[in-house]
Amino acid sequence: MKRLFHNFTHNPKNDILSGLTVALALVPEAVAFAFVAGIDPLVGLYGAFMMGLITALFGGRPGMISGATGAMAVVMVHMIQQGNEVGDSLANPINNLGLQWLFITLLIVGLIQMSAGFLRLGKFVRLIPHSVMMGFVNGLAIVIFLSQLGMFKERIDGEEQYIQGTQLWTMIGLVALTMGIMYFLPKLTKKIPAALIAIVSVAAITIFGGIDVSTVGSFIRDGGGEGLQGGLPTFQFQIFTLFDTLNGHWGLIVSTAFLLAAVGLIESLMTLNLVDEITESRGSGNRECVAQGGANILNGLFGGMGGCAMIGQSIINVNSGGRGRLSGVIAAVALLSFVLFGAPLIEQIPIAALVGVMFMVVIGTFAWSSFRILNKIPKSDAIVLIAVSAITVWQDLAVAVIAGVIMSALVFAWENATRIRARKRLKEDGTKVYEIWGPLFFGSIQTFNSKFDVKGDPDKVEIDFIESKVSDHSGIEALRNLANKYLDLGKSVKFTHLSPECKTLLHNANLKFDEIIETSIDDPRYYVVTDKLDKEV
């Protein structure tokens, strides 16, 4: 309790100001992602409010911002469209059935994510290699940059086209002014978030100067929305009466729920890892999983689109001085206040100011050092870094991270598969000794087997594992098969310096291994990732 209170009172000024800055940046993002998902902008804003509030209060990383995200919006689209088609085809048509299906799906998403937290799966983010992390942030920076280019478009006769002429140069000038303020102001003072001053200054110039530019309000209306004004989120009683519409569609709902849960957790845990590095502190991945799951359940019950951690807004918050939970709470409450009370004012904020802020986020997010180290790191790491960046832009963050981890794991397995060695010597009594060096696992079994001349070896053979480690079930199987080969030829074989667990597993396979294994005080202690064997020698 004392630590929680400290998180709210440590630096309230910075947290409040940075929270307000983030709230302003959240508005167009939440609206844009709602459009991507094909739902009402208010659903996106409600989702950002509920995600932001719950994760700020109970999440595993103070200072991290959550809300409606594009990665999850893209996953929702197909299910929402199919739900709407089903709703239109019913004898008594149901409007926006796809949106109701989304609320039901979010309940399942929340349960999956909370289960991941209770099962302590959040710790697996530590298995993500640094090359994947760098590729992730680079790809993310490119994705944020490309998404902001869409703000330079306008809808003409139902088609989106890039703005031209005076309108284009005016927007470029305002974007440059915003970036200039954010770059130079911190050199004069860091008491006030530069992003907030930049947004307020550019908004004042356009409002009092009567400059005709695209604003938050025009952005919402151009996308088909009616404006920012709305009420409080309401409990969605109707979703509990619509389970019969899911007959024959539960597969779609459950598969979408698992995909949404995975995307949300991967993006959030990667964001947590990134913020940890920036703040030189450590958050709790498991706690974040539980908080995010609870927030998505709340979204399903009260009509939000759900979401996860937002890397861009989290970086804005941290760089603006928001390090405590208060900053996330202020961002969420301010966002709801904009919807309830400040719509006319917030709708006048020029899009150019928000684009300028996000461009500075891109510059701050991109790992520029990756260009300098590409020719200095192992080629495999360089390939992984570039591949993760490309896949992030081509597909999405979750696919990129999973692909990067798999690529890194395969490279690691391949490199270790070639490192197993066998030194050979003869004892005075004629016993041939194989001293094994290196890991014995599924990747190194073929090389391991090639080290032995079973037919040409003398009648007594000793295999010493003092400098080796049997790592998995495949390694245990390799030992069993090797012992069988020697025994079938009537030769004597001894295994020395195996770990206690190795001995237990081989003993459970067959009691005859007691005659093969020698026990010594020098035997190593490590665990083998395998199930107990029940096969015969």
In the sheet with the most strands, the strands line up as: 5-6-7-8-9
How many domains in all? 2
Helix content: 55-70%
Low-pLDDT sequence parts: 531-537
Structural class from helices and strands?
Answer: alpha/beta
Quote the beta fraction. 5-15%
Quick gist of this model?
With 537 residues, this protein is α/β, with parallel strands linked by helices.
Provide structural commentary.
- This protein has 537 residues and is of the alpha/beta class.
- It has 2 domains: 7-89 and 98-157 and 173-366, no CATH class; 418-518, Transcription Regulator spoIIAA, CATH 3.30.750.24.
- The protein has 21 helices and 9 strands.
- It has a 5-stranded mixed beta sheet. The chain has a two-stranded antiparallel sheet with strand order 1-4.
Topology (SSEs and partners):
Layout: H1 2-9, H2 12-37, H3 41-58, E1 66-67, H4 70-89, H5 97-118, H6 130-149, E2 153-156, E3 159-162, H7 165-188, H8 194-208, H9 216-222, H10 250-279, H11 285-302, E4 308-309, H12 311-319, H13 325-340, H14 343-346, H15 351-365, H16 369-373, H17 379-394, H18 397-417, E5 421-426, E6 432-440, H19 445-449, E7 460-470, H20 473-488, E8 492-496, H21 500-509, E9 517-518
Parallel strand pairs: 6-7, 7-8, 8-9
Antiparallel strand pairs: 1-4, 2-3, 5-6
Helix pairs in contact: 2-3, 2-4, 2-12, 2-13, 3-11, 3-13, 4-5, 4-10, 5-10, 5-11, 6-15, 6-17, 6-18, 7-8, 7-15, 8-15, 10-11, 10-12, 10-18, 12-15, 17-18
Highlighted features:
537 residues, alpha/beta, Transcription Regulator spoIIAA, 5-stranded mixed sheet, 9 strands, 61% helix
